[in-house]
Amino acid sequence: MFKFNHLLEQAGLDLKQVCLVRHQDIRAIKGLSPYDLWASKTDQFNLYQSIQSKPVFEKNEWVASFVVTPLGETLFVGMFRKHGVRKAPTKTIDPSTGEDMSGRYLYDLKLDEPLKGYAGRLVIEWGKGHIAWRQKPSDKNNKEVLELRRSAHEAPFPGFASFIWRINALDTVPMSWRLILSKVSGVYVLACRTSEKLYVGAAYGDLGFWGRWQDYLKTGHGGNQGLKKLKEFDFQVSILEVASSAAGKTEIENLESLWKDKLLTREFGLNLN
User: Fold this and answer.
1) Are 173 and 241 in contact (CB under 8 A)?
2) What per-residue confidence (pLDDT) applies to 218?
3) In-domain check, residue 268
4) 68 and 126 housed in the same domain
5) Structure confidence at residue 161 (pLDDT)
6) Minimal CA–CA distance to 165: which of 223, 231, 209?
7) Distance between CA 152 and CA 118 in Å, rounded?
8) pLDDT at site 233
9) Where does residue 79 fall: left (phi above 0), alpha (psi -120 to 50 degrees), or beta otherwise?
10) What pLDDT, on a 0 to 100 scale, did the predictor assign at position 40?
């Protein structure tokens, strides 16, 4: 099992001098979460994490910084080295919440070379202690690495009509694409590569298409009785129709039924109703 502390040690860092921080702020103004700041305003993100109400980094030389993505993932964004601390000047504003942070601790944190190649690519399991946003790495607290993405710089989303992916390879979908797919609902089709049959489904719950497809990745059948009968699960997924943002469950289910009629998936496919 790949662990984050191994990377720190391979980089020659003393674990006693490292602080792990996971940034997620429920007070953040919409569009200015720690993740949003990191993705589009890196200088503002660093200002955000540098302002603290308490001397939280006093005993540490290094800050291993993580942000929580809109999908709840804990994404590594870099190793920051502490070069000192001072009092925040008058009218210092928190870039995420808009609050006046005058007089708070203002650390001089600078993004440094260690683990630079993993920034924006490495996802870890933070564990159950989400409230403990600041932790120390140790033998007992060695975070599991869940995913190492190909690149932090992703190709643009191809559009809903052109999106095609294998369910068993969903973990390779670029993060920005996942966010797009999590914000819309509608009707999709699974093409079974083993039975050569189609299944039409609807996504209308939390996290839209992306949330629904994760059910298939986890179980192979997503709880559907017809798909449970298959001996093997190897689906290709694509989108048939994106529902209006105002559409409710009933409207989306009606669209789903219409597509079942169009593709005859009740008669010749994998839909049982």
Assistant:
1) no
2) 86
3) no
4) yes
5) 94
6) 209
7) 8
8) 79
9) beta
10) 81
Domain around 227: 160-263
| DSSP state, residue 3 | B
Is 37 in the same domain as 113? Answer: yes
Q: How confident is the model at residue 67, as a pLDDT?
A: 96
Q: Which segments of the chain have a pLDDT < 70?
A: 129-130, 153
Together in a domain, 222 and 177:
yes
Q: Which 3 state secondary structure label does DSSP give 242?
A: strand
Domain count within the chain: 2
pTM over 0.90: no
How many angstroms separate the CA atoms of 242 and 25, rounded? 31
- Rounded CA separation 198/271 (Å): 8
Of 148, 180, 198, which residue sits at a domain end? 148
- Amino acid at site 150: R
Tokens 């294998």, located at residue: 166
Q: Which residues of 231-255 are buried (b: 16+ CB within 10 A; e: fewer)?
A: eebebebebbbbbeeebeeeebeeb
Enter the tokens of residue 25. 């702020």
